[in-house]
Write a structure and sequence with these properties.
The protein is built from 15 helices and no strands. The protein is mostly helical. Helix 2 packs antiparallel against helix 3 and helix 4 packs antiparallel against helix 5. The C terminus is likely disordered. Keywords: Repeat, TPR repeat. Pfam families: TPR_1.
Length: 260
């Protein structure tokens, strides 16, 4: 058992920062956030230059509501390793959650990241999705139709990179409903309905119901996408193991529900 090995290793060598980081990461994946946070803090005290430890500490802090500290941890991870994909994506997502007015800055930073081309396909998919959500958020404050077109294009590009990026597909389906493009929305919903492995299959059924009724209750759509994801406790926003699911947190934000 990997956990048992790590616990023995850290008990035998309490000053091994890397071992503390791996222990904290394992605990985080198991949902033991308080213990994970303690182990990651110890790791940073012992080895302050471990960028991954700062990133994972940020994830733990976000899960218990320490958002300002979480943002600082992601920023420190990026200071130590400017090319770290996870820290970059986590910082942008958290910035959108905390400050809707920062959507323009997130658009600029994600655009620059995409131009650099430093990320692999998985993280490029996530960056495209984050930028799409930033366009949606900016649209809610400035009501620019162009932003919705740009958001939809980003979700489509993300799906070109990874057809299994469920949250991009759900967001594109939502935009299709909003634009009354029922054919396109229905095509995305068909894919989502067939993909029972994902936690938002419940939301897919709700999206299908909404499309049939051609309802304007977009707040319900967004709420149910987030609710269905929360039904599966193995997934979590900003998860270091399931980055696509991170998008659910933004889709369920109250600022989006009010705007819708």
């Amino acid at each position: 058992d990997a956990m048992a090995v790590l616990e023995v290793a850290t008990s035998l060598d309490a000053y091994n920062g890397a071992a503390q980081m791996y222990l904290g990461t394992m605990l985080l994946k198991r949902g033991e956030v308080v213990r994970a946070k303690a182990a990651l803090e110890t790791s940073i005290q012992l080895s302050p230059l471990l960028a991954q430890a700062h990133n994972n500490l940020g994830v733990a802090q976000e899960r218990i509501g320490e958002l300002d500290a979480s943002l600082q941890s992601f920023e420190e991870a990026l200071r130590l390793d400017p090319n770290m994909s996870e820290a970059f994506s986590n910082k942008q997502l958290l910035t959108l959650r905390m400050h809707a007015s920062e959507a323009r800055a997130v658009i600029d930073e994600t655009s620059m990241r995409l131009q650099l081309g430093t990320d692999g396909p998985q993280h490029r998919t996530l960056v495209l999705t984050i930028r799409g959500l930033a366009y949606m958020l900016r649209n809610h404050t400035k009501k620019g139709v162009k932003d919705l077109d740009l958001a939809r294009a980003d979700f489509s590009d993300a799906l070109e990179e990874d057809p299994h990026c469920t949250m991009s597909r759900a967001a594109r389906a939502y935009l299709g409903l909003r634009a009354r493009d029922l054919a396109a929305s229905s095509a995305d919903l068909d894919v989502l309905e067939r993909d029972e492995k994902h936690a938002n299959s419940t939301a897919t059924l709700e999206l299908r119901s909404m499309s049939v009724r051609v309802s304007m209750m977009y707040a319900v759509i967004l709420r149910d996408i987030g609710t269905s994801l929360r039904l599966n406790p193995t997934f979590h926003p900003l998860s270091i193991t399931s980055p696509n699911v991170a998008i659910s947190q933004l889709l369920d934000e109250r600022r989006l529900l009010r705007a819708a």
